[in-house]
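Running co-folding for zinc ion.
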Amino acid sequence: MIDRKDVEHVARLTRLALTEEELERMREQLNSILTHLDTLRGVDTEGVEPTAHAVDLVNVMREDEVEPCLPQDSMLANAPDRSGELFRVPRIIEE
Amino acid sequence: MSAPAHYEVVIGLEVHAQLLTRSKMFCGCPTTFGAAPNSQTCPVCQGMPGVLPVVNKKAIELAMRTALAFGCRVNPACRFARKHYYYPDMPKNYQISQYEEPLAEEGRLEIDIDGASRTIGIQRLHLEEDVGKLVHEGTLETAQASLVDFNRSGVPLMETVSKPDLRSPEEAAAYLKAFRAVLVFLGVCDGNMEEGSLRCDANVSLRPRGSTTLGTKVEIKNLNSFRNVQRALEFEVKRQAQALDAGEGIRQETRLWEADRGYTRSMRSKEYAHDYRYFPEPDLVPLRIDSRWVDEIQAALPELPRARRQRFVAQYGLPGYDADVLTQSRALGDYYEAVLREPAPSAGADRPKIVSNWVMSELLRVLPGDDERAIATSPIPPRHLAGLLRLIDDGTISGKIAKDVFQKMFDSREDAATIVGREGLTQVADETALGAIVDSVMAANPKAIDDFKRGKTVAKKSLFGQVMKATGGKANPTLVDRLLEDKLAKIQR
Ligand SMILES: [Zn+2]
């Protein structure tokens, strides 16, 4: 079971400022996801290799060739804030 | 500085090396350094939702090459993992790295320290993507915002983790130097620490001498030169020794080296969280590396500097210093051996050393460096140097004239025989002709003869110089010396 402390911990790692109400809602939702996983855990997987993929593929690679980038302006177009050619983000230096 | 005698220092290094690919790890954006900010990005390397990364095969091969050079086991199966942390230098909030199944494990690197050789274990070698570059707006104190350039984001990095086998800050610096040399030699990384192509973090702990359990380790970040590695570790060893002596104990933490201020400082837990919540990267399928692929890479591995150095000493009887210089770069060692392969019918057994002298003191004097480019574009190819040495061996020119010819070869790109023939530099070795010149020099220098008679043997040197001058340096020096000796002996009597 996920408790309040777990939710606070994950929220801190993900830089999310959650209200009391949101913390509680997240706790409930995360627990219901875990409950769903318990159902999956019931499946007999004896002798089945663990995998991170549903597709049976390996070694999908590309040659080391340069392709065109997107123009600088279009890459910066959606930025909430910019300074010239750079993305501008809230100061992240810790005192 | 070394640690207090009652403690043993235990250091392990993690080195991140930027691989020399043309395009990024998971997209086709170029990796060129110094481009305008955010001009080399695309939705993949900016971490936009819904994009699919595709592995750059060259990056895998460069990492395999390095792994094999370190004698690592290349794992037959490996895969990528997501390493989660939240920082503005990485917009998708996870870095694609490798965790449980790295590309390669269990290798070693030989280092030389105080004239002795030590083997340092390599624990693992894996691939990951670089992140963006963050700069502060204005000064550190007044900054209101940080600015991000994503050109570096997605550039292939190879992380190599050593075993905690290093026993002093000096050894750590020696390891990093040897590590860099191998990477540059293999052509997998340009080794440029100033541009961040090679970056280093260290784990360091102390333990009472004789103890076999590890002490609490501290991670130090931001060690971006050989000098900083040593300085930061020296500081940290001293700090830990003082804390232990005072009975304070060591806190497991990450510290940042402040090079300008000369100390390490603790990083806030907010700046650095160790809870990365790794899981397999669902957007990338696993890699299967069969033995044929490994064999292919292994077969193409060049002889490493260390092995080549040992072979040069054993096979050619070269002094260690010569072998060191000649094996610094692959191109220079190749050049040296190419000269040796050229025919030299009149050469003596000391030919390897003579060729070494010419390469070290003449060739390296005129070339801009010993790198691939400098050697490949040398105006004096190995065949021409060998030709010059043949002219000395068979007595056509003197060693002194040969040095002038060498410079002319460099300036004109012509071979030695052409220059010597055109400029009439052939050594005068005709005894009768030389004898006449010696006689006239003696006749023209009565004072030197008088001096000699009065026992001033130095006068002979002056006469020798006059003869060489009269022949434009072309006289065979051994013959001149003998002729002078004979003629002066006659006068004495
Ligand atoms: Zn890209």
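Result summary
The mean pLDDT of chain B is 90.
The radius of gyration of chain B is 31 Å.
Job closed.
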